[in-house]
Amino acid sequence: MKTKPTSSAGIPLFCALCFSLPTFAFSFAATGHQLVAMVCEHELTTKTRSVIRDLLTTESLAEVSTWADEERTRDRSTSTWHYIDYNVRTGKVEAQHAKDPTILDAISSNSVALQSAQSTETRQRALKYLVHFIADLHQPLHCADNDDAGGNKTHILVDGQENRLHRVWDGFIVDRMLARRYQGKSLPEVAALLHNKFASKRASITSGTAEDWAHESFAIARNHVYRLPPPAPGAKLSQLDEEYLTKSESLIEERLAAAGFRLAHVLNSLLDSDSSTTAPSSGRSVLSERRFETGARTKRTPGELSVPAGVH
């Protein structure tokens, strides 16, 4: 979850199993991350499962999926690892943000650490980071900025209540999708249904690079998330209407599923040398040479963002 400039409190796990629709009862940092991890579980090879079991011992991927948010409260230098600020007008990372390590740097460095580090503790941390960051990469507002801290400073109305656009995409859209499309289902049941629904698209979903996947999220933010309905006459804030919310449900369902398949693709490529899965090899791959140490800053040159065709 992106927390510039604010953050939300963690949500108890039991709340994630409730499918009524209270306003912002869940956080993407809980429900969304758990769903991504559970979809991923369906795609892991036997060898990858074994390595993960050895690293996490008694914990599941879903249970560690929010660890990175907890770690950020202990180490604020990791805050920028959760997002990348492509400006929706220029398609570039603006100069003031270019000095900070981004989510792409974090995915690259932790991929290398998970595959190659000698320390078990280092590999454990790298795995936990990857489980979280691959999911964050698929929340559109973790890859876009409209000079509003990724939607944190844009206020809107939803169901008659004022809130931040970023928070709506972290929680409300996920909640609404679950309530309307998977009512009465537990999270493991939803994950299984999501996996089955998108399994036939596995090859196309897992193609590309981490940077390509970030570009997808940016395109969704630019072409949909930030295209808010105009405020009603005399009103200051946009009210998210049924058309906007229904389309958002479909988009977030697809992003959660894609994140799960891609997380498994990355983990299989890193942990199972016998797997037919290979790490992305074009563009800025998950095994990019771009690395950083905890708390370090890397110099980055802002570049033009090439948006994939057909992403809406």
What does this entry look like structurally?
This protein is mainly alpha-helical and 312 residues long. It has one domain (29-150, 165-271): Orthogonal Bundle (P1 Nuclease), CATH 1.10.575.10. The protein has helices at 28-41, 46-56, 61-64, 67-74, 103-116, 120-136, 165-181, 187-198, 202-205, 210-225, 242-271; strands at residues 155-158, 161-164. α1 packs across α8, α8 (187-198) crosses α11 (242-271) and α10 packs antiparallel against α11 (242-271). It is globular and about 60 Å long.
Summary, kept brief:
This protein has 312 residues and is mostly helical.
- Mean pLDDT equals 83
CA gyration radius, whole angstroms: 18 Å
Q: First CA to last CA: what distance?
A: 22 Å
Segments where pLDDT lies below 50 for 5+ residues? 3-27, 279-312
Strand order of the largest sheet: 1-2
Quick one: biggest sheet?
A: 2 strands, antiparallel
Number of structural units classed as domains: 1
Structural class: mainly alpha
Q: Helicity level, as a percent range?
A: 40-55%
CATH class, anyone? Mainly Alpha
